[in-house]
Amino acid sequence: MSEIPTELDLATIAKAIGNGWEMLAAFLSIDQPKVERIKMRYPHFTAQQVFQLLLTWRRIQCNAASFDELFKSMQECGSVSVDWDMLETTLGSRFGMCLFLLSTEVLICFIVFYLF
Is 77:90 a contact under the CB 8 Å cutoff? Predict the structure, then answer.
């Protein structure tokens, strides 16, 4: 999906991201000083930290910030925990797509199918 995620979309996605979100920053081309500033501003709220990271990514990427790019980065960053079931439930029906999580011990990937 080449659509740019809205703030509401990013808030929903932020709720699905847990441990390892700092590593995701590197896959989103967000430098470490920005991550540290986010952590200092919101020290006790992980979901808010992730939301601010995603807002920063969208602002930096401008028109290149798409669901495709975000989900690709989330998938490539193997050390971040993502609740793909929650994303399928909350975003899947909105876009007429299904997210399938295929996991092995080494690789976690997802496939996006567009329903026409």
Answer: no
